[in-house]
Amino acid sequence: MPKVISIVSYQFLPAKFGGQKAIAIFNKYFSRFVELNCITTQNNDPNAAEGYRVMPILSTSPLRYINPLNFYSIRKQVREKQATHLMLEHPYLGWLGLFIKHFCGVKLIIRSHNIEGKRWKDLGKWWWKILLWYEQLTHRRADYNFFIQQEDMEYAILNFKLDSTKCILVTYGVEISQSPSVEKRKLSRDKICNRHSIDPNDYILLFNGAFEYIPNRNALDYLLNQINPILLDNDSFKYKLLICGRNIPAHIASKSFPNVIIAGFVENIDEYFDATDVFVNPTKTGGGIKTKLVEAIAHNCNAVSTRNGAIGVDPAICNGKLLVVADNDQKLFAEGIFQVSRIQADTGAEFFQHFFEENIARSAAQFIDNF
Fold first, then answer.
1. What are phi and psi of 67, to 5 degrees?
2. Which residue among 58, 95, 152, 258 is least crowded, i.e. fewest CB within 10 A of its CB?
3. What is the C-alpha to C-alpha distance for residues 326 and 310, in angstroms, rounded to an integer?
4. C-alpha 246: how far from its chain's center?
5. What is the per-residue pLDDT for 285?
6. Where does residue 236 fall: left (phi above 0), alpha (psi -120 to 50 degrees), or beta otherwise?
7. Same domain for 333 and 361?
8. Do 348 and 362 belong together in one domain?
9. In whole numbers, what is the pLDDT of the chain averaged over residues?
10. Average pLDDT for residues 227-246, to the nearest whole number?
11. How far apart are CA 114 and CA 116, in angstroms?
12. Strand, helix or coil at 315?
């Protein structure tokens, strides 16, 4: 059994949001197939980890990304745990991983959540080319490259000149292997309707995210100011649009939008997914797979997404439940909501075969064990 030390350079426990869940859930299932220890920052809660040990020994200072003393503390853990592999979440600590690889003889895994250089280019950062170069260097010198979505893997193989045999898709996964039952969804729907005074005959639409993230904030503005007015023009379509998530901008939270309910951060987002008829994902910028879309379809929601928002989710495996439209066509997006609201199909086995976390983690472990 491989002995893996994972390094996560920021807070992810307890996992509440998409990126945090992407790590915590993967680690939980990966630890069933490898001996896993995780080195992370001091603001993580080790008791929130399931199946693996967490060592919160990294500083929370921004200087942790360049602190050479981290080499000694991590080398100590690699030797004590007799690790065979070191896994970095993101390439930012690539320099450190390469030093540990050289001096400790471990195999280096880079788990990419996005092509970070491209993502920062989209966000308008002048230094994106420097990061892209560093990212390429790190991936090329790694022994294994995990990618969270297919398009990123294909880009990296082509542009970073990676050996494709050292690359594997290790996507974001869900912990359920089939959609919730009709009874469970009805119970959640009744609860959400009562909580927010929604007419039981209305369609429930949902958009959620962490709104301090600029692409999510822009998507929310687009949804409320350009798509919702088109929905309102259809008198026969009765609906309520729920907005869930942290850090909703004050100019939105303090304003009243017709047929819109600003729920803010909710403790149990699964309950809202179960209650939802149509999940909407109008995200037009930002890289990587949108974890909220995967979760929504797993919970049997029909969904409409922009092309950017559907990166990493193939409509062909969604049994007709995902409609993808152009990034800047608000009319087509609204018409898509009307269209998918009538779909009665359930999310099928092919979707869960691809996105069930246990399958994903097993494949990743076999890949590094057999290579």
1. -75, 110
2. 258
3. 11
4. 16
5. 86
6. alpha
7. no
8. no
9. 96
10. 97
11. 5
12. helix
